[in-house]
Amino acid sequence: MPPRNVVVAQSGGPTCVINNSLRGIIEACRSHPSAFGKVYGGRFGIEGVLKEELIDLSATSAEEIALLRTSPAAGSIGTCRYKLKKGQDQDFERVVDVFKAHDVGTFFYIGGNDSQDTAHKVSVLARDSGLDLVAVGVPKTIDNDLGDAEFRLLDHSPGYGSVARYYAHYVRQANEENAGSCPADPVLVIQAMGRKIGFIPAAARLADPERKLPIQIYLTESGLSLEQLGENVVRQLESDGRCIVVVSEGFDVGDVGAIRDNFGHIQFGASQQSVAQIVVNYLNTLKFPVPGKARGQVPGTDQRNAIAYASVTDLDEAYGVGRHAVEVARKHGNGWMATILRDRTGSGYNVHYDKAPLEQVANSERFFPKSWIAPSRIDVTDDFVEYARPLIGEDWVSVPTVAGLPRFAKIAQVFAPKKLPAYVPQTARAKG
Questions:
Q1: Where in the cell is it found (predicted)?
Q2: What is the tens place of the pLDDT at every residue in 122-172?
């Protein structure tokens, strides 16, 4: 029986390392030519499957595929925020038709909570419709909220280690600025991504694990009010003369003019006001015990695509879990997500790759452990530092450059010939 083809796609917000999971899948499939035929990339995630826009990745050389290691974000094959929902029968039928038309036997979907739900729906669709298809999920999310509360299904998600490293460096550098300019700007407010789960702002503690700097961290889970934040800042100014406030974008400051994406999640970066600005405005109404005012910074999507800050550990693990997903597909079949688990025995930091049923991780939501929030509620514990510190790695990533600029992978935009009538995804059709 000739090898059948593969479709790999990405969904949700990108990361520094998402393309490394893609690289792992492509290279692992290429190393098993008797098991896998052509590898197609769904252009802009599951939407590319629905629209039959399948990039023929065999048209891209091994050298370019290798450059995916240090090519950030989703510029390779694209991503989406389209979700297959109950009742979208025509979308599900279309997925079956496209996979049949292109003799697709394996589907890999890289993404977070909602993406694993899509992978799970496709796996169930294959089973219930008699479609000879293996669907496997590959984890990805900077929020680190995929998996279970006990960290037994997934220790951490690819993407988190790099954003944690970004904040460790960002806050360290911001401290130098604040220390030098505090006579005029004694308070610096930094807003961190993380809708309602505090793993990202918590990573600010990695900038100062010995707690020597005047840093306060406000997770959404801290349960503090804006007024309590102000009181804490004033006390810090009384003792240190300056204060760095790291606040989650989901910290409750009232209405910020919320805008939601297609998954139903608030897009704080697109909202009418930023949490940081509201905090700054409020702090500047208070009477500080030192001269000067508060200032704010809101890092944008660079926190998830700044490849210069990527964790080498994260890059390696994203690649490893991508390759492992191919082994899961070959040996275990339909309905799994490849996972990363930390070895709890022995010294040092080591991981191994495993698998978890898609039905257990689909739409899962792991919250920041309450036991990792310090009693003050403006810091995290040493247990969190012990958990997160290995994820940011040691060395700087080496990014190939040409004429002083980063050299990213160039995926040939060669598409599989369309075999089906044009199709508009149901949700997009409804909006139109």
A1: Cytoplasm
A2: 999 999 989 999 999 999 999 999 999 999 999 999 999 999 999 999 999
Whether residue 373 is contained in a domain is answered as no
Q: Residue 348, annotated ligand binder?
A: no
- Quick one: which of 100, 162, 158, 123 has its CA closest to 328? 123
- 142 belongs to an annotated ligand binding site: yes
Confidence of residue 272 (pLDDT cuts 50, 70, 90): low
- pTM score of the predicted model: 0.94
Indicate the number of domains in the chain: 2
Residues that are catalytic: 143
Residue ranges making up the domain that contains 46: 4-159+309-363+392-431
Per-residue burial over 130-140, b = 16 or more CB atoms within 10 Å of its CB, e = otherwise: ebebbbbbbbb
141 is in an annotated binding site: yes
Is 285 flagged in the annotation as binding?
no
In a domain, 368, yes or no: no
**In 57-176, where do the E strands start and end?**
104-111, 134-139
Contact 235, 179 (CB under 8 A): no
- CATH code of residue 184: 3.40.50.460
Judge whether 377 lies within some domain. no
Same domain flag for 23 and 122: yes
Residues 337 and 403 placed together within one structural domain of the fold? yes
Q: How sure is the predictor about 428, in pLDDT bands with cuts at 50, 70 and 90? A: confident
| Residues 6+ away with beta carbon under 8 Å from 333 | 134
- Per the annotation, does 300 bind a ligand? no
**pLDDT band at residue 199, thresholds of 50, 70 and 90?**
very high
Specify the pLDDT at position 265. 47
Beta bridge partners of 109: 9, 137
Among 265, 287, 306, residue at a domain's last position: 306
Q: Is 8 exposed, middle or buried (0-12, 13-18, 19+ CB in 10 A)?
A: buried
